[in-house]
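Two proteins, back to back. First:
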Amino acid sequence: MDNRVISSDDPNAIQKLQDKLEMCEKSQKYMKEVNAYYRKNGTCEGFPGMEAARAARLDESVRQAYSWDKQPFPSYALTNNSAEIRRLKQRIEKLTVNQEVGFVGWTFDGGEVVANSEENRLQILFDEKPDEQKRSALKGNGFKWSPSQGAWQRQLNDNAIYAASRMEFLRPESGESPVKLQPKAPKKDAPER
């Protein structure tokens, strides 16, 4: 299994997550089929497409396993993989919603906040260098100074908007909360009960 981190900043993140999800779902199906075959036959030998050496290793691992888990793929492996499948589905959904919604920036007294979707950053641009108190507040809310961008920034997501809304000096000129300025994701249909 590929354990490399898939960053939300990656422009191909959704596709990579879908590929990883597909691998996990195939793995889940395979583990269930092998376990069902083992329960029926008492061995992995003869499982379609499995090499004899692998079948022998799986049979041996079952013999060496704890008494309560007598199957080639222990229940925790299936549970963990199932949890990973759920996590990947939720992450794909969240990234898709973030792309569809499209965050918006605003102007405030002394600068502007830009929702830079190309860089996947919420950027704060000041007209003048902010004082020590404002810089401390920015750092305390997860913003970092980026000399290459000339802005204070953090990853563009709901949490960045909430962090910006906590700092009174970033309040939009309209007086509205930055959270209220953001477009809302379409409501999901509630499941029937």
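And the second protein:
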Amino acid sequence: MVFSIPNADSYIEQNVIDIEDWQDADPAKKQRILNVASQTFSSKYPKLVIPESAVYEFAAVLASAYNDTNRLNNQGVASFSITGVASFNFKDTQSRELVAFIPQRSLDLIGLANGGIKLGTRRVGRSVR
């Protein structure tokens, strides 16, 4: 499914709190973010209906996660400063799988669109003692 930037703009401006990074992105970057958000959901939840609103919620988070400052963090920069303007120190490198950025709100919207199923961000794994 191809998502519309005007629809995403409208949804994000009305329903998301932190929108500055989305608004600052150029149209080509917005389309890439929408494509990545949609593809991430399609591969993680191939049998579920993914509503547009869930993709738009995730897109807003990805816009913040991959803004100019956080992109440096993703590339492994620990800190940098601009003399007389600002200094940035990253607690840890952000390089994570895209699914780690999926907000609970998106999962709730997917759950509602699929009969009220519960999806969470917790990962279940095995441990060996």
